[in-house]
């Protein structure tokens, strides 16, 4: 059995870059998911409380929907980049 330090000894610097970038994107996507949804779900509950919502229900709802769309797009891009880079490397 080969030692772990020798597994990637023949990889080019570009391949190692794809490998590390793929793992970094995977960590960003996986770490961001619970944090962002905990934050956004808390804001979703605050929309229904008129005392905490001075902008009005509809404006606050659109603001929250834009945030959900941005988070979804970022998570999609991180997941896609991670999968693609690690698929190319492997």
Quick structural gist:
This protein has 90 residues and is an all-alpha fold.
Which labels suit this protein?
single chain, 90 residues, mainly alpha, 2 helices
Element order, helices and strands?
Answer: HH
Integer count of domains: 1
C-alpha end-to-end distance: 19 Å
Quaternary structure type: single chain
Estimated structural class: mainly alpha
Describe it for me?
The structure is a single chain. The protein is mostly helical and 90 residues long. The protein has one domain. 76% of the residues lie in helices and 0% in strands. The protein starts with 12 loop residues before the first helix and ends with a helix.
List the SSEs and their pairings:
Layout: H1 13-47, H2 57-89
Helix pairs in contact: 1-2
